[in-house]
Write a structure and sequence with these properties.
Shape: globular
Order of helices and strands: EHEHEHEHEH
Number of helices: 5
CATH superfamily: Response regulator
Largest sheet: 5 strands, parallel
Number of strands: 5
Number of domains: 1
Helix content: 25-40%
Strand content: 15-25%
CATH class: Alpha Beta
Amino acid sequence: MSRTILIVEDYEDARYLMKFLVESYGYQVIEAVDGLEAIESIKEPLPDLVLMDISMPNMDGLTATKAIRKLDGASQIPIIAVTAHGKQFYQRAIEAGCNALINKPVDFDNLKVLLNQYLRQ
């Protein structure tokens, strides 16, 4: 059974590239363009992991992560923050409920390692 990853990213080009690469690793992808859409997308079926952009319109990734953590069944889903703001957001991401942080531009070798770490078959 293939694992499903929710990619939350407001920039279409970045979302498309991440989707292409994540699918090339053998995972299925659900997409959301902001935090509000992420919360709706996560309800059913639950994804196995979330790649959450931090800076987005309508609802930022940290606020969305806090809301997701309160949903039934979603408290244990790994959430990896994705940000261009650097490591200074690491502590804020962890406090919001993220499990890890990866910087933009995304190093896709590091991304693959993180996905494998959190989605061990």
